[in-house]
Specification:
Strand content: 15-25%
Helix content: 40-55%
CATH class: Alpha Beta
Protein name: TIGR01244 family phosphatase
GO molecular function, one term: hydrolase activity
Organism: Stagnihabitans tardus
Order of helices and strands: EEHEHEHEHHH
Structural class: alpha/beta
Distance between the termini: 32 Å
Number of strands: 5
Pfam family, one: BLH_phosphatase
Length: about 140
């Protein structure tokens, strides 16, 4: 598992497995967000399987699938609500990019647009194409 901390309380990664939930619990995460649509993955990583694995570890699990480029108001509201729920949040998708983009556009707090782009860039995520949208949504 390749965990990339965007903030002390929010991290992203590429696809994880059900077995990774115990590690996430041990690292202090309290919420896991699945940003990957089931149609992209094999059945053994489906949202249902992952939710069961999270529940077995006492982790909250949020299913918020993001199709590439689909950062709808509903998707961003769900991501923001999960982040604002408190505790350490871990989000995953195919590479971590969609989870980073959703964070930049929905995370509460005073981070500037520049910071919301620069932080994910440290991990190779290029959010420049979303600059205007991030600025409009988050300032």
């Amino acid at each position: 598992m390749d965990i990339r901390h965007l903030t002390p309380d929010y991290a992203v990664s590429p696809q994880i497995t059900p077995e990774d939930m115990a590690t996430l619990k041990g690292l202090g995460f309290t919420t896991v967000i699945d940003n990957r649509p089931d149609g992209e993955i094999p059945a053994e990583w489906s949202a249902e399987v992952m939710a069961e694995a999270a529940a077995a570890q006492g982790l909250a699990f949020v299913v918020n699938p993001i199709r590439p480029g689909d950062f709808s108001d509903a998707v961003l509201a769900a991501q923001g609500a999960a982040i604002a729920g408190g505790g350490k949040v871990f989000a995953y998708c195919a590479s971590g990019n969609r989870s980073s983009c959703a964070w930049a556009m929905s995370a509460p707090g005073p981070l500037s647009t520049e910071e919301r782009i620069a932080i994910p860039a440290r991990f190779g995520y290029n959010l420049e194409g979303l600059r205007a949208r991030i600025a409009a949504l988050r300032g």
